Structures
1.
Amino acid sequence: MLNVDAARLAREGRLRDAIALAKAAAKIEQGGAFRQLKELISGATAAAATTALQGTAGAVAPQLLEILRAIALETWTLRRRSAILDVHLQTVAGRISETLPDAVVLETSSQKTYVPRALAEAANRTKVGDLLAIVTERLNQSQVAFEALPAISVENSSSSRPSPFGRSAPIHHLTAADARKFRRPAAPLKVMIPVTVGK
Amino acid sequence: MKSSEWQLRSIRRTQKDRKALATFACANATIAWQAEVEDFVQNALFEWRFSPLAESNDPRVLLLFDKATEDLVGAAAHESVVMRTARGESFVATKLEVVAICRDWQGRAFGSGARASDVLMSGAMVDISAWVPPRFQRVVATVHEDNRRSLALCRRHGFTEELDRVDELSSYRRLLSRAG
């Protein structure tokens, strides 16, 4: 991921940032988690290694998942610190919540995205509950590139719980008592401090 | 109350604003309900605002800056939502998605005495009141039951009614702006 970011930065002419990021990627690759990953993959059967590399880590999980989580967190922290966030590059990572004949519905804490099934298949992620990431890169005014990647959760399952944030938040249900409150007209909102909101 | 001390504006679809949110720190990482606010602001709020799939919700994100330092002091967001009963009755409302003040400004006021949290919340209320097309003015804020500062902030700003809690978020209170 970081090497891809570095290549992208180089293409944009941001050579110093690209070199710094490539060095950071090399550092992660020399780190303990990456070494463990290499040992685990090399010790696995060819089929297990293939499924791991394809993102369908069945045979060597959950140890593999733990290592991948550690590497993902390192990478994520570094990307954020390196300020390589790009308004032309958007990543939507979430869980598939629904499958349709031609598409899967990718749900995040803030949105639902319809992903063409062929794109999801390219990442071996087509079942409800699968984790998938879609990277969208605007190449120029008329071209956009999509890349589907298998995703992993960096949280332990115990910490995955409903959140009050985002559009999937389960806050929209009203009881009969709530509905009675909503039927009453709203009072003007209270503004404690006169403020102006600029554009 | 001097607006010359702060700048309150809509978020812009720029790398600068995106980065400002991505590095926004408002939580003690050991407290889960604080950490999830920070996580949402850092990792989801920008896309929450600019997702083309959410245009019909008319999402708004406001940023509060300290004019002297140009530091981001806080972020607030709201959008139109539809609330429903089990019998299918629906009501349009405004969801106050988040009101977050960065760690350095929590409990602090500007030189004129205006609390940063009150300035930001006032900005959200003004924005909801004045928005065109008119935004439905029953506003729902979801606040963790242990988040005393936010509960007090909501009370000060007229969130005096409360909806029943939902099972999935049993530690959260759903506060409702007052009726007429």
2.
Amino acid sequence: MEENKYSELDKLFRSRLVNPSDDGDWNVPPGEVFDAALDEINGGNSRRRFLLFLWISLAGLILTISALICWNIRTLGSIDQKMDEILAAQQGEVASQTTEERLPEENTSEVNEIEVQNESANNNGAPATETSGGGNSIDHSQKANSEAGQTPTANIAAIDNKDNRNKEEPFWPIIGPDGQYDSDPAEQENLPVTTAASDSIEAFAGLQSIGLLGFPYFFDPLPYSIDQNSIEHNERDSIVESKKPAVLFAFGPSLSTLNMISDDALPASLTKYDKWYSGYQMQLGLVQKLNKKWDAVYGIEYQRFTNQSEFREEHSYVKANEVTNNQGEQEYMLNLDLLTPIGIHSENMMVPVGNNSISDREEIVHITDMKNRFDVAGLHAGLRYHFIERKALNFYVNGGLAANYFLSVNEQMSTKLYYENRMLKEFVADYSTKGQLGNLFVRGNLGLGMDYRLTSHLNLGLNITGASSLNSIQKPSSVKLHVRQAGALFSATYRF
Amino acid sequence: MTEKELIKQVVKKRRKAQEELFERYKRLWYSICLRYHSNTDDANDALQNALVNIFTKIKQFDPDKGNFGSWSSRIVVNENLLLIRKRSRAFVTDELNDEIHVYDESESALDRLSAKELTKLISQMPDGYRTVFNLYVIEGFTHVEIAEMLGISVGTSKSQLYKARTHLQEKLELLIGQG
């Protein structure tokens, strides 16, 4: 009863909606839905794998940088502590000079004698402990001071000074027995340059903070010109301050795609291939300082990128394709069409079917795992422009060119054939398709990077670079196949 | 290219064939999605899931044994139901009401109603009404089948259908009155 009452209503909706007419665009879905679905079918897995890889890399990077910063803060803390000790020694020296002026004549001359002996020992480059009579002199001076009823301030300062000199504190030679700085060039040249430069900057900062800039001799005797420029260089990067090239080693993950940009020119058998490749890259090169802002970087590089994909196809079984081989066994000729980065790869396989009674139209299934691997070597050259310089950190943009060469292009294929869930046979193939690609291609790259000064010799860095081949890597000129890449390079730059 | 050849190419994952198949059936598939959801975002999601399933399972389809439109429509309907379940939309489980308003048809006014307007009417209904109405009236399932598919009782299915019909009848009368 009720059904009848609504039969006309139902009929109305059913007639109009079961096969809706093409009136207007109301039932046309957005094109993105189709694209998203195909992405999910064709590339979803490899993209997810890459995102996981990227996430792990970033987490590792953050942890590494955090650890380095913590380590460096501790190091700077110890430098500050050392500075305090040095400044205390300096103040002691000033106090000793004041005391000397008040000492009786005989005591003053004795103290001076001690200091002259110590100074002489250090000027000759000999350890203070080897100074002839050094120990006796000290004892003697202490005794003399005691006899004179004076506190041995000057002598203690002198002993402290001697100890410090044995540690090769770079700024120590500035204090001479006459209150003037020691300017023996031979000794200055023997100082470890980077340590001295680094320490002098720290000392400069420390003295500036307590208003002791009134000691002009503090920096003058050093072989490194501590003008404003060199301070800035040192804050940015003590390595690039030198004109000598630094050695760069970089390693990191990369993401690549082989991108065909001339779809129309493709042969009918070749469809657009847009799979993603993950891999790694490494560089070994030199960083040459050109001026305050610009560096030249050049060297060799190597990279490998791979893609793994699975194909599953079902074929109708055609009896006519059955043949009897020389051993009298029944075999089935199966034609496989596999989509590879460089086109359709066709292969005929003979599958032994034995006594299986497979009739026409039944399906035979093959599942193929395919792995493509590219090994590329190259020479690269480029420039870096430093645009932000903040103490131990500096940021730069970089660009350059690389001449790349395909060392190898390999395909590994494992095909398993199934019939009624039973595996008939597995084929494993490993072959090179290098001949189908042009061997050489030029790659342009642009990137953004940062360097962190870990020590005066070592910089650690991160560089994010995008790159694209400038010429097609495919041999037939009608098909333009380009490599597009994005990568992160973790680098260490060392100046010996 | 015949549909059979086209499907063969789609099985081989040829992009152009996939595009061609989508062009042929996109209106049918999307119309189904629009009927099952009140907003286009959900309809788009359902269609995307359905496309993934259609292109993945297409090798199981035998062109000699069935009609691709019906086969693929069934997948689309299933994906819509899955999405509705995922969104945890509640079904009203009240019982049947004997008070029935009989639809006074007006042929000329009804003729003017387009598929778009009818789809809009359906999509504006509450989820439970809409789903049961689609499954029963448009797809042709029985109440027992619907109850099994949606995990509800047969009584609830009948109740939802009754309410959907009443709702649609009122809306149609309004539309015709305005027309």
